[in-house]
Write a structure and sequence with these properties.
355 residues; alpha/beta; ten-stranded mixed β-sheet; 40% helix; binds 3-isopropylmalic acid; binds manganese (II) ion
Length: 355
């Protein structure tokens, strides 16, 4: 029988990206060996250094090449030497738009109470998945600046929601909630700001309509401001959450802290059945570059999500188990940068995969 092979693009990017991706790839290779599948990897140099050298941010031909892969593993993008947002828009936003990666999947799970900044919260209390819409809203890029630099300057950024854009991500979230099986009746919470931003009424209506297809899923609703409060006060109330792009961006950083920090928070930028991109939620943290101090667990978790996407569920489980047992064991005292060496966390996870 021929060996299963997966074609994966690797984009380490800027700052700490290269170091954390190196550990993610060690884990990927080890899991591949144990599960008996092959990985064909192509590594791309795009990011700040490449841009400064060549003037090239993300050429369409490279995007097209990546489109022929099953998945993309991304480290981090962003560098203070370059105009704010230029690389983020060309690369992160470029991938999300080009491949229509409409789901931004962000699991928030606490493994050990000592990593949680909230008082009296345990792993049983913090176990949710945030489904962030990933292609529309204020991120659609509609708007601009009129009479820039004058006293009469006008700056506009449109929040847009399309019927099919809202519907597909809500349906994905219901389906996920139904399949997830956290225990008890699954619940999906819609988070929006439809009281102040009346255009978001489209979320309210579509959510109610799609809910009828999923009688097994309980529904709930919170405005984004209140959701931030509940996330801190009663995170145990959340199971699966669905929310527009910008609120999802903000809420998931809060969620990352509640699960122990940016060191462990991963995300998938997904179009089901098509090429999708997986990345840690944290940024490039240029000041930590080359210090071997960034926590690679978020990237390792991104590899876990990537394996789920390419149909290697058993390999994904291995990673989940290794991360869980490692964090439960108390061997990693803090998930912040500097608490452990990047390579040392890689070693620990590799040992846990063997155990
Ligand atoms: C994220 C990041 C990006 C976003 C930035 C880098 C454009 O913060 O993935 O959450 O806002 O989506
Ligand atoms: Mn963000």
């Amino acid at each position: 029988m021929r060996m299963r092979r997966h074609k994966i693009a690797v984009l380490p990017g800027d700052g700490i990206g290269e170091e954390v991706v190196a550990q993610g790839l060690r884990v990927l290779d080890e899991v591949a060996r144990r599960e008996g599948f092959g990985v064909d990897r192509t590594t791309y140099p795009h990011g700040a250094d490449h841009y400064l050298k060549t003037g090239e941010a993300m050429p369409p031909a490279v995007l097209a090449e990546m489109g022929r892969c099953e998945a993309i593993l991304l480290g981090a993008i962003g560098d203070p030497r370059i105009e704010t947002g230029l690389l983020e828009r060309a690369i992160i936003w470029g991938l999300r738009q080009t491949f229509d990666l409409y789901v931004n999947l962000r699991p928030i799970k606490l493994y050990s109470a000592e990593h949680c900044p909230l008082k009296n919260k345990t792993p049983a209390d913090i176990d949710m998945i945030i489904v962030r819409e990933n292609t529309e809203d204020a991120y659609a890029g509609l708007g601009g600046i009129h009479r820039k630099g004058t006293p009469h300057e006008v700056a506009v950024a449109e929040m847009i929601y399309t019927r099919d854009g809202v519907e597909r991500v809500i349906r994905y979230a219901f389906d996920l909630a139904q399949r997830r099986n956290k225990g008890g009746k699954p619940k999906l919470t819609l988070v929006d700001k439809a009281n102040a931003i009346r255009a978001q009424d489209i979320w309210t209506r579509v959510f109610a309509e799609v809910a009828r297809e999923f009688p097994g899923v309980a529904t709930d609703h919170a405005y984004i401001d209140a959701a931030c409060m509940w996330m801190v006060k009663n995170p145990e109330w959340f199971d699966v959450v669905v929310t527009p792009n910008l609120f999802g961006d903000i809420l998931t950083d809060l969620g990352a802290m509640v699960q122990g920090g940016m060191g462990v928070a991963a995300s998938g930028n997904i179009h089901p059945g098509k090429v999708s991109m997986f990345e840690p939620i944290h940024g490039s943290a240029p000041k930590y570059r080359g210090l071997n101090s960034a926590n690679p667990l978020a990237t390792i978790e991104a590899v876990r999500l990537l394996l789920e996407h390419v149909g290697e569920a058993s390999g994904a489980k291995r990673i989940g188990h290794a991360v869980r047992t490692t964090l439960e064991s108390g061997r990693i005292k803090s998930l912040s940068a500097g608490a452990n060496k990047t390579t040392e966390v890689g070693d620990i996870i590799l040992a846990a995969l063997a155990g």
